[in-house]
Amino acid sequence: MLQNKKIGFIGSGAMAEALIDGILKANLVTPSQIIVNDISQNRLEHMAGKFGVLTTLSIKDTVKAADILFLTVKPQIINGVLDAIAPLLSPTTLVVSIAAGITIGILESKLIRIPIVRVMPNTPVAVGEGMSVLALGHYAGEENGELVLTIFASVGRAIIMDENAMDAVTGLSGSGPGYVFVLIDALTDAGVRVGLSRQNSLVMAAQTLLGAAKMVLETGEHPARLRDMVTSPGGTAIAGIHVLEQKGVRAALIDAVEAATKRSQEMGKKSHG
Ligand SMILES: NC(=O)C1=CN([C@@H]2O[C@H](COP(=O)(O)OP(=O)(O)OC[C@H]3O[C@@H](n4cnc5c(N)ncnc54)[C@H](O)[C@@H]3O)[C@@H](O)[C@H]2O)C=CC1
Ligand SMILES: O=C(O)[C@@H]1CCC=N1
């Protein structure tokens, strides 16, 4: 499906790096099919060294070479990038934007009649365990959707949803790895506090999250039922869970997702103004 296709990236920061890492590990494309653009020579050298991909400081060369063009710059500068690429795009170039908060409406107002797919991935695409949600623009056909779905499904789970879910998706799965890394770091500190080595504690914390997440996905059981299986009457787990409930961890997580969702909504509004 992607044979002979060139994939361009405008912006080669954290998310572009995670995505390229994942699609190369999945053998979806070869490094010579990827061309990466950035304003930072250091970033380009890093990407060429790590992946063997083609790199260029020229936005024009990237746009001209790409059959599929990923916009992987910060939302705050996307308007300038859209202005720069608009006159260079061929009508058949498929544009994939992953910029948080930037709506298909904003993208299509600058890129007239161009097939666009908006995606909210997350950094675990780097290890083949990403969660990506796609929304199709008005000029993106079914085959465009399938192509982008193939790319993101090769690096984790990928689904197509209505665009109006995107801010919530950004608050939950897009930003979610950030929350989980905080949890793993805190659990590691906790292990150290009760006398474990930091090295062992980190592995135990991360593997525990991984295992619990896998159980939810593979058994299809409600997490509350799985939690009940851990809590023996008068035992250790319920003693720990009691503290989590007292400290409002559940409400804190709900508030975190809500705050990130609101921030995504604000970013879209700002960029439109
Ligand atoms: N980091 C994450 O977990 C996720 C990020 N995103 C989205 O991905 C996009 C990129 O985010 P990150 O990779 O985290 O940001 P980043 O700051 O790590 O990378 C952005 C890159 O763009 C480059 N850049 C700046 N101006 C440029 C220009 N005019 N032309 C070409 N390159 C330019 C920068 O030098 C930098 O390397 C954002 O829109 C963000 O909303 C989406 C999902 C998750
Ligand atoms: O923090 C951000 O704005 C980006 C979008 C989703 C995750 N990181």
Description:
The structure is a single chain. By secondary structure, the protein is α/β, with parallel strands linked by helices. It folds into two domains: about 5-160, Rossmann fold, CATH 3.40.50.720; about 175-265, ProC C-terminal domain-like fold. The protein is about 55% helix and about 15% strand. It is built from twelve helices and eight strands. It has an eight-stranded mixed β-sheet, sandwiched between helices. β5, α5 (about 105-110) and β6 (about 115-120) form a beta-alpha-beta unit. The two termini are about 40 Å apart. The model has no long low-confidence stretch (mean pLDDT about 95). It binds 1,4-dihydronicotinamide adenine dinucleotide and (2S)-3,4-dihydro-2H-pyrrole-2-carboxylic acid.
SSE topology sketch:
Layout: E1 7-10, H1 14-25, E2 34-37, H2 41-51, E3 54-56, H3 59-65, E4 68-71, H4 78-85, E5 94-97, H5 104-110, E6 116-120, E7 130-136, H6 142-153, E8 156-160, H7 166-174, H8 176-193, H9 198-219, H10 223-230, H11 236-246, H12 249-272
Parallel strand pairs: 1-2, 1-4, 2-3, 4-5, 5-6, 7-8
Antiparallel strand pairs: 6-7
The structure holds 1,4-dihydronicotinamide adenine dinucleotide (NAI) and (2S)-3,4-dihydro-2H-pyrrole-2-carboxylic acid.
1,4-dihydronicotinamide adenine dinucleotide (NAI) is lined by residues 10-16, 37-40, 43, 72-75, 77, 81, 98-100, 120-123, 174.
